[in-house]
Structure formats: C-alpha cells, structure tokens
Amino acid sequence: MTDPAFVRRVKRRVSARIHEFFAVCPPGLRQVCAKELTGLNARVHDIQVVPGGVTFLGKLPEACLANLWLRAPSRILMRLARFRATRFAALEKKLSDIDWELFLPAGTDPIIQVTTRTSRLYHSDAIADRCGPIVRAALGTAQRKTGTADPPRVPQTIMIRAENDRFDISLDMSGTPLFKRGIKKQVGTAPLRENLAFAILNAAGFTDRDVLMDPMCGSGTFAIEGAMIQAGIPPGFYRRFACEAWPGFRPAAFAHARSQAAQQFSAASSIFASDVDPDALAILVDNLSSHAFLSPVHPFQLDFFDLLPNRFTNQKGIVVLNPPYGRRLENNMDTPAFYREITRKLAADFSGWRAGLIFPGKQFRHLNHLTLRPFPFFHGGLNLAAGIGTIQTRKIAPGTVKSGGNS
Ligand SMILES: C[S@@+](CC[C@H](N)C(=O)[O-])C[C@H]1O[C@@H](n2cnc3c(N)ncnc32)[C@H](O)[C@@H]1O
User: Fold this and answer.
1) For 193-215, what is the mean pLDDT?
2) Which pLDDT does position 195 carry in this prediction?
3) What is the distance in A from the centroid of ligand 1 to the CA of 29?
4) Ligand 1 centroid vs 94 CA: distance in angstroms?
C-alpha cells in the first residue's frame, strides 16, 4: 500500500506543478507539431518551436494526453533540471538534488543516455557512470533482492544533454517511439515512419471525407495512418507509454480521456492500398486483420502503372506514393527514369487528384511539370521531400507509360 505522505509529495511536487516538456520532432515536422499542440484539447501553453522539436509548459496529466494525441513527434521528454556544471562534484550534487523517487517507479534501473557538446565534462560514459548510482540509490534499486521474480518493468530512460557546460536533465515519457502506433504486426523492407506519413497527409490537406489511394503501399503506413485519422482514433490509443509507470501518472484520468475518445470513433472513407509485390500485400493484409477500424482499407495487388483510379472511385481524392529509389529499384531502372515514369502516369490518370509524392531531394525537377510544391524532410539518413499539391493536366512528354492498361 502506498504511503499517503509519499502520494501527497508526488502530487505537490510532480502532478500539480507546471513543468517544461520537449516534443522531439524529425526535421520538417516541428511546425506541424506546434500546430497539433495548439489544437490539443489540453491546458498546455508557451508552445515554442526550437531546434530539434517543440517545447511547451503544462502539468504532467496534460503531457500524458499529448503522448496519446500527437502524431508528429518521435517522443516527448519531461525536463527535470537545468544547471551549469564544469566538474563532476558539481554535477553529482545537482543530480542528487533531484527527487528521483517522485518521478520514476521504485526499483527501476533506468537507461541513461548522454550527449555532450563543447563542454568541459564531455565524456558521456563517465557522466552516465556518475548519474547511475545516484538514481539507483534514490529509487532503492540497489537494495532489491537479486533472484526475486519482479513483474516485467517498462524501460525508463533518463536523457542528459550537456552543451557549453549547461546540462538539461530529462525523462523520456514515451518509451517506444511515438511513431510506433502499436498497430502493425509486421513491416516491409523500407517502411515509412507513421509521423512522416501523417505530415505528408496533413500537408496534402487530407480530411475526413477524402478518398485515399496508396498505389505503392508496402506494409500500408499511409493507409493505416489515414484510416486512424479519419476514424478519429488517437495515435497512441493502441499502445502504452513509459510515463504510465510513473508515481505521478493518473490512471483514472487517462482511462477517462481514452474512453471519451473512443466514444467519438467514426468510420473512415474508402482507402485503396495496392502494391505490385505479393509479399508486401501479404504483410498489409495481415496488418489490416488486427483492428476492425481498418475495414475501409481495400488491399489489392496491382502495378501502379496499370492503375486507373476511376475504376475504383468517382471521387478525386488524395494519392500518396512512397516509391523505391536508389538500390531498392529493380529491373535496372535508374531513379530519375523511374520518377519520370511516375510523374507521367500521375499526369495522365490522376489529374485533379491531390498528391503527396515522396522523392529523393535531387529528383524534384522531374516533378516540376506536375506543379507540386516540395515539402522537405529527413528519413533513413536521407534528405527527401514530398511533392504536395493538386495534379494539373499539362503537356505530357512522350514516353512509355501504359495508361489504360488495367485488366
Ligand atoms: C519504399 S516501399 C513503400 C513502403 C511503404 N510506404 C510502407 O510504409 O511500408 C516501396 C513499395 O513500392 C512497391 N512498388 C515498386 N514498384 C511498384 C509498381 N510499379 N507498382 C506498385 N508498387 C510498386 C514496392 O513493392 C514496395 O512495396
């Protein structure tokens, strides 16, 4: 049974206080994240776009809701302390001043991640080695009897960042990265991250009523994200967060927020997800079988160049494409040639559709005649962009595209 004095301390020092939080975002998604935070039905304020993400102020329960509802960030950190230290003794003193036991579950042995830049204390391992015993002592981790069968613990991570001798000490609220929605059972060879799929759908103006077509769907990231958005399902609804194990977490309030969200779930519009590769399709079909809300997603095997959208829908919706490029391309086709074919096909058969077409940064000139604007981002160590906009019918250069060849 939890000590009432401890519960009161947690409430006073953690749950009822305003803290600073940091939503870590991939390049290109910070503004989208700031907009999401502004629209969040929670009391968060002082939202600021900063290098690497977005900071905001609020209470812990509100930040837990941000984990549940935000689609753009990769994770959310809670700031515990910020101080200057140039010697280990000063660092240890400051770390000892933190009431670790009010923030992390008793008995935890957290992972300690350290990054340093232009600081006198620059050795990451040495910093982690000083921090570890202090935290373990505060959490009573060292005193735990070895050999006892503890219940499996959610991994907890302390993030220490030092720059110009200034230290930021944070806790990772999310645990598993937020772009993992807890829905896919399998992924294909080059899956897109869900937060990027969201950002591209968002940039293309995806709404509840839009038909969505993903003709190179792989494991179905766009289709699943699109179905979730249209059904009004919070991105974190089917997963857990590290902060759910914290003493300051309020399970009843969080469960209430989840059940309120569930009462608003609605049906998605039609979503067509196709791929030329039967193995990719098998992965998609398996992923779709995991949740009933994915029933509006229609999977089928087809070569994109044989796809005629008006055979499936009389609406002009949104077409998203995440084609393979570089070494992933087969049939000895080079990337520029493949992208030229794709843009010709889009111009021929998708005129009036809105597009979100992912391409390696250098291929943009091939998209010029589609009048798409570039939305740059970074993924898998590469500079990429999505061509966003409405596909206009323009003069199409003579080529080999097989328009109308669908069976
Ligand atoms: C980069 S992967 C897409 C990954 C997907 N967005 C995901 O998150 O899993 C590219 C996909 O394009 C498919 N593809 C390549 N050429 C195609 C074509 N001509 N028609 C349809 N699909 C094609 C590949 O089979 C592969 O699954």
Assistant:
1) 95
2) 96
3) 23
4) 51
Percent of the chain with pLDDT over 90: 75
User: How far is the centre of ligand 1, averaged over its atoms, from the C-alpha of 297 (Å)?
Assistant: 17
Q: Which amino acid is at 211?
A: V
Question: Which residue ranges have their beta carbon within 6 Å of ligand 1?
Answer: 188, 190-192, 215-219, 221, 275-277, 280, 303-305, 322-324
Cα–Cα distance for residue pair 366/342, rounded to 1 Å: 9
Residue 400 domain flag: no
Probe residue for ligand 1, chosen from 277, 279, 281, 406 as the CB with the greatest number of ligand atoms within 8 Å: 277
**Centre of ligand 1 from the C-alpha of residue 322, in Å:** 6
In terms of residue numbers, what domain contains 67?
Answer: 4-142+152-172
Q: Is the pLDDT of residue 289 over 70?
A: yes
Measure the CA–CA gap between 116 and 123, rounded to whole angstroms. Answer: 7
Find tokens 């058969």 and name the residue: 349
What is the number of structural domains in the chain? 2
Helix (H, G, I), strand (E, B) or coil at 130: helix
Q: What is the pTM of this model?
A: 0.91
Dist. CA 201–CA 193, nearest whole Å? 13
Q: Which of 27-41, 295-309, 356-370 has the lowest mean pLDDT?
A: 356-370
